[in-house]
Amino acid sequence: MNAPLSSTLLALAGALLLAGCATLQPAGPSRGGSWIGNVPPGEEHYLGRTKSGLDVLAEQDFDILRGKSTGLVVNHTAFDRDNRHIIDVLHEAPGVELVALFGPEHGIRGTEDYFVDDAVDRRTGLPIYSLYGENRAPTADMLEGVDVLVFDMQDVGTRFYTYIGTMALCMEAAAANDVEFVVLDRPNAVGGKRVEGAVVEEDLLGRPIAIRTIATRHGMTIGELALLFNEEFGGIGVDLTVVPMENWRRWMYFDQTGLLWKHPSPAMKTMNGAVLYPGFGPSMSTTLATARGLDRPFEKYGAPYMDGHAVAANLARRDTPGVRFVPVSFTPTAPYHRYQDEECHGVAAILYDRERLDPITAGLHMMQAMYETHPEEYAPIPRFATIIGNEDVWPMLTEQGMRPEDIAETFRPKLLEFKALREQYLLY
Known about the structure:
The protein is built from eleven helices and twelve strands. The protein is globular, with a radius of gyration of 21 Å. The protein has two domains: 5-263, Rossmann fold (3-Layer(aba) Sandwich), CATH 3.40.50; 271-412, Aspartate Aminotransferase, domain 1, CATH 3.90.1150. By secondary structure, it is of the alpha/beta class. The chain has helices at 53-59, 86-92, 163-176, 222-231, 271-280, 308-316, 359-373, 384-388, 393-397, 404-410, 412-423, and strands at residues 69-74, 97-103, 119-120, 127-130, 148-152, 180-184, 196-199, 215-217, 240-243, 300-303, 323-330, 344-351.
């Protein structure tokens, strides 16, 4: 790291204190890919005790925000351990002047599944500026009178999930307008140990789904990514403060933290969907539907033309540890998405061991099985290469018929380089 880490972090006395008890502890299986089975010996006491950056900020009496006009980049996931939303927390905090809100894809409330308009927050009367409409970053006019811009959203740990792209664009806007930037850190929903998938190629970079040349499953928190973005890839150079979590460990999935899961977006409703997403998410840029609008999106995949039994039979002949596939039919209901209100046939991905799962190769296996079963109908759409991170993947998967494991192996050289770079910015 070019700058000392201490210059970018909020000083935390007695870091990693074992304070507080679990709230709304989720249920989970007791073995085999469970939320208990991956806990290192001697670290069981961390289960359910994570404090988000927001919780830590409150314990510090909001010192870094006092006396400053504060803008907030936020959505519906920014709750503290007492289930209070950050808008209410900051609006009521003594000495904190909250002056503007900025909403990402899906909006402040997380209910929109298309472009979002500017609005006014009913509870506080504050303006809400959309960052997923005409503008993808705050303009100079929006930042007029703002001293510090605070970012607090729950990410899911996959490069093409748009929230980290929004964060980078907001950092750039803050730097250009001499506004301080504060990131309240939150868990990587799928853990912070595993780094997988392609490092997106530079000529495929696009905002906000491929904002920087990082791996598909990057294994970093939003705070760690902010530190990385600020120093690397040409640097942003914003006046950055990251407020770290307490009691989070890299082996933790979200359901081991004790924090309350709020659907990060309308189509990210389950932990299983988040675990599958790095490898199965790219299929949303092919000619199939991902069960949007239903109870388990990103766990079911199909199309009106598809023979789910034939695809499942193809997949049954493949080695996909941690997940199996069964035929399924469903009717997507989400507006603006492919095959809305049409009956689709395909497969459901049944996740039974998330520790054994390699989501990247399993997702490639599913797409290859669909292509082999429906070579005329099943195809990519234009942004497929950007989402998966490599323009050679589709021909390797289809015309060349390469094994998914061998395709994943081609990612390794750049993946190793990214891992070495990433290591400099890890906080936990």
